[in-house]
Amino acid sequence: MMEDLNHQLFLAINATPASPAWLLALATFIARELIYGVPLLSAALWLWGPGQKLSAQRQLVVKIALALAISVFLSWLMGHLFPHPRPFAEGVGHQFLHHSPDDSYPSNHGTVSFTFALAFLCWHRVWSGLVLLAVACAIAWSRIYLGVHWPLDMVGGLLLGMLACLAAQMVWNGCGEALYRLLRQLYRRCFALPIRKGWVRD
């Protein structure tokens, strides 16, 4: 029953040869490029910011990194425990984005983008989390629309993101402060010159 629903939802979202070229181009941009916002925004939050908020920003980055590490590991594990072919590998729908025919469940793009959004929802602001959640949904839509993922691949990514954020909070409660201090020491050593030049914050 779930597999039938998965197929029906996929066919309802998946693009066809009659789909507008501009929408295919937009979906391709979203599917390929928006995920780079995760490392770029994380790096910006660590490197720059007002003095009174910088420590909180960096602790957020550490929590995000923990959640992403956990979610990516769980995604890898789930992919090996419950392998599932991609739509084009089953000859279902239309494919408009090149992708190797590896296992599709859960979506790595969905897992990372949903984990990132949920991290902001949990540890930053509701508005920032909702904005990033909208971006994650757009990424999820684009990869289904272009024919490289099933809808349930994205649901799996969302659920893993929830679980990873919960696990990351537990890790933070146990050793987060010590980990943060260690990372700050490493950062000061590795970025001593840029810090001294004033290019990034201490």
Automatic annotation (TrEMBL):
<keyword id="KW-0472">Membrane</keyword>
<keyword id="KW-1133">Transmembrane helix</keyword>
<dbReference type="InterPro" id="IPR000326">
    <property type="entry name" value="PAP2/HPO"/>
</dbReference>
<feature type="domain" description="Phosphatidic acid phosphatase type 2/haloperoxidase">
    <location>
        <begin position="61"/>
        <end position="169"/>
    </location>
</feature>
<dbReference type="GO" id="GO:0005886">
    <property type="term" value="C:plasma membrane"/>
</dbReference>
<dbReference type="Pfam" id="PF01569">
    <property type="entry name" value="PAP2"/>
</dbReference>
<feature type="transmembrane region" description="Helical">
    <location>
        <begin position="154"/>
        <end position="175"/>
    </location>
</feature>
<feature type="transmembrane region" description="Helical">
    <location>
        <begin position="130"/>
        <end position="148"/>
    </location>
</feature>
<dbReference type="InterPro" id="IPR036938">
    <property type="entry name" value="PAP2/HPO_sf"/>
</dbReference>
<feature type="transmembrane region" description="Helical">
    <location>
        <begin position="60"/>
        <end position="78"/>
    </location>
</feature>
<keyword id="KW-0812">Transmembrane</keyword>
<dbReference type="InterPro" id="IPR033879">
    <property type="entry name" value="UPP_Pase"/>
</dbReference>
<feature type="transmembrane region" description="Helical">
    <location>
        <begin position="20"/>
        <end position="48"/>
    </location>
</feature>
<dbReference type="GO" id="GO:0050380">
    <property type="term" value="F:undecaprenyl-diphosphatase activity"/>
</dbReference>
<protein>
    <recommendedName>
        <fullName>undecaprenyl-diphosphate phosphatase</fullName>
        <ecNumber>3.6.1.27</ecNumber>
    </recommendedName>
</protein>
